[in-house]
Each structure stands twice: as C-alpha cells, then as structure tokens.
Amino acid sequence: MRFITRKDVLLQLKRDLIGKDAYRGVTLTYSWMANQFGHFSLGFIPTFILYTILSSKTEMKHVEIWSPLIIWGFWILFEACNFLGPLLLNTSIKKSASGKKTYIFDPEWSNVTFDTLTDLCFFGIGALGCSLICVYSPAIMIGFIILCLLSLYPSYYWYSTKMHLQNAGYPFQLRLSQWNFKMQDQHKKMIKDFLRSEEKGKHLLLFGSKGSGKTSLSVGIATELSIRNNRCSYVTATKLLSMFFEQSDSSSLSPGSWTWHDSSLLVIDDINPGGLIKKDILRATLFYELLNNPQYGPFNIQHIKAMNIIWVMGNEEPTEQVEERWETLLGTIGVPQSDIITVNLGGV
After folding, report:
1. C-alpha of 274 from chain center
2. In a domain, 273, yes or no
3. pLDDT on residue 91
4. How many structural domains comprise the chain?
5. For position 250, what pLDDT does the model report?
6. What pTM does this model have?
7. Which of 39, 72, 51, 59 is nearest to 134 (CA)?
8. Under a CB-based contact definition with an 8 Å cutoff, are residues 71 and 127 in contact?
9. What is the pLDDT of residue 92?
C-alpha cells in the first residue's frame, strides 16, 4: 500500500509554501526546496555578474552563451571535487589492517551521485535562466527547457523521500556510512543482511553500553530504508507502551504519514539505559503484559510479530532469568528464532 501519493506531495507542498516558518518550524521538505533555490541562485547571480562584466568590459561575442556555460562549468568542477574529495576522505572512516582507509558501512554511491546530479541540474537552470533574461537565445532556451524537464523526476523523488524521512520522526539525521563506532565483522554482515532482506517479521536486537552507538546505528539503518521509500517509524519504548492502549487516529497525521503499526520498520529506542545500570528497568515480562492488554492485545501482537523491528537495548545481562530475556518475549508472541538477530556493540 502506497502511503505517500501525489495528492499528499501537493498538500505538503502547499503547507511548505503558505504560512510562516517562524512559528510552525521548518520541515525537511521545506529545507530541500530552500536548498535547491540556493543552487538556482548560485547559478543565476554569478551568471548575471559575469555577463555584466563581459558585455561591458570586453568585445567577446555570444556573451549570453559563454556566461552561463562558464558558471555552470565552475559548479560542475566544484561538485566533482565535493563528491570525490570529502566523501572519500570522510572522518567516519577507519583504517584497515593494511593501513588503507575504508568505511565501516560503504556509502550508497548511486544515491549520492543522483543527489549531486540533481544539484547540478538546478545550478544549470539558474545560469541558463539568467542568460535568457539578459539576452534571449534559442539555444539557451532549448537547454533551459531540457534541464527543467530533467529536474521534474528528481524533484518529485527527493521531495517525497524527504517526506518519508520527516514522517519517520528520527531524533537526528544520520546516514549509515557516517556511523563510526567499533563493530565486529560478523555483526557488520548481520546489519547488511538485515538491510538487504525483503522478508517481513525480522527483529534486530541491538545491545551495548552507553556511548556504544546503539541509537545512531538504528537511526542510520532506518534512514537508509527511508531513502528507499520504506515506511519507517522511530519511537521510544515509553511512548510505544502508551500507544498499545489507544486507537490510532489517521486524520490528525501530516500528509502521507502512518501510525506505528503501519510501518514497514519500527525502531524502538531507550528500552533500557545500559551503562552502569546493569539491570533492566523495563522487564520483558512487563513489556509483554502491556503489549497484550485486554483491549488491544491481539492487534498489538499481530503487528509486532509481522513487522521488521530494531530493538535498542542496554547491556545484555547473561545472568537474567530465561523468561526475562527479550528473545523469549519474541518467541512468546510467535517470532521464529531464525528471524531474531542479536548484535552486541559492547563485545568488540
């Protein structure tokens, strides 16, 4: 079922364009539009300045053609350096045993490339648009129209993708390639398999002490899936427990939004603190008791069992009674052991 439709995109666009962000806040979709307007301006304004200088100070012919091409060419070179430089030398990389710098999780290069090409498209639209205002040229007009047409799909894709990201409710923005904590190779493979899997009902249990990168890893994983236009949701355990006792009202949601039980991936954070607090504050037995409440129990269990979930835990306590362990909880609600993946970030 597609939750973000063209109607939702148009409604979100209306909300972003009408009203003052001083009192309503700035959405990711609004930020994306402002960013592309900035790219347009960085093509438009320098082209106008260069055209004015060349047309008044030189005898150059076809200034209206050379000016936008020079400015656009400059931004193409700039973005090429920005793409190949900072990304390849990112601070979130580590050194392998051979001394070669590598990412813990490789960036989605195709996605980054598409983003770079989108930016270049708006740089070009600004430069060619300025040239048309200065002096009309059929060749420039053809190029301008082509770039405008080429920008339609990227604009729709990125705008709807930003809606997927903002509707997920993440506490911060983080791509998985930016995650730079320690991790065992076997756990790294588990994370990659979890990302690639198209099966439903997979449960990833992330254990680790305070500062081990549990939350940022879960957000990074979910962000990659949101960018693929999956319905992801981030929620703390305390908030989710209250949701187990209420009927969701979709009429109060923003355009294209979804409830926790409509998510294809649910991130449950802050289940237990970890660090020096070794014992679970929220016991698995208590969680199950609230999950399986008399009014909504069967409904809750059905969706928890069927959806993909990342459970962000504290320290894994090996001395816990078996009935207190979270793997046992998942087994109680019908999740097969083969669908439970456990990663302990403290065991590096």
Report:
1. 26
2. yes
3. 46
4. 2
5. 56
6. 0.86
7. 51
8. yes
9. 46
Name the domain boundary from 130, 145, 168.
168
Residue the block writes with tokens 């078996």: 322
Residues of the chain with pLDDT under 50: 1, 91-93, 96-100
User: What's the rounded Cα separation, in Å, for the pair 262 and 266?
Assistant: 9
Last residue of a domain, one of 147, 168, 189: 168
User: How do residues 236-293 score in pLDDT, each as one tens digit?
Assistant: 999 999 999 887 655 556 777 888 988 999 999 988 776 566 666 788 888 899 999 9
Domain annotation covers residue 1: no
Query: Within this chain, do residues 185 and 248 fall inside the same structural domain, yes or no?
Result: yes
14 & 153 share domain: yes
Q: Do 186 and 124 share a structural domain?
A: no
Beta carbons within 8 Å of 182's beta carbon, 6+ residues apart? 345, 348
Residues 149, 204, single domain; the answer is no
Q: Note the pLDDT of residue 73.
A: 96
β-strand pairing of 203-207 with 232-236: unpaired
Rounded to 10 deg, the angle between the 6-17 and 28-57 helix axes is: 70
Placement of tokens 């099966």 in the chain: 199
Which residues form the domain of 78?
Answer: 6-168
- In the block, which residue shows the tokens 């648009």? 129
Same domain, 153 and 188: no
